[in-house]
Amino acid sequence: MLGAVAHAIARTLGGIGRFAPTASLFIVLFWVTDLPRLMIAAWLPTDATFVQAATWTTWGFGYVLAILLIRGQHHLSTWKSAAAVSVQMLAALALLRLGPVR
Q: Is 40 exposed, middle or buried (0-12, 13-18, 19+ CB in 10 A)?
């Protein structure tokens, strides 16, 4: 879902990338960057400070890699890529933290 949103925003901002590579690379990117947090959270409680630090670190690392992905796939500037990724990451964060609107 994140890849589809980032792809749509990147295309709106003038990107020329295709959907399939963008979406599939987003899946791989966020699974790989989230694996360390999942491994740590398997043994420690999720409210532990170390797990929270790992969560924000992997989230930030995934954010930077997503910017590079959109920049390369859609041939956009770094600022436009950051805008495309920021919108979808903020939406994902809001959905995860606040839940769906009822």
A: middle
User: Could you tell me the sign of the dihedral formed by the alpha carbons of 36, 17, 7, 79, in that order?
Assistant: positive
Query: Residue 26: which residues within 8 A CB-CB, separation 6 or more?
Result: 2, 3, 6, 66, 69
Task: Report how far residue 85's alpha carbon sits from residue 51's, in angstroms, rounded to the nearest whole number.
Answer: 24
In this model, does residue 42 exceed pLDDT 90?
A: no
CA distance 10 to 29: 17
* Buried/exposed 81-90: b ≥16 CB within 10 Å, e otherwise: bbbbbebbbe
- Look at residue 101 and tell me whether its pLDDT is greater than 70: no
Residue 100: the pLDDT is 60
Q: Is the pLDDT of residue 79 over 90?
A: yes
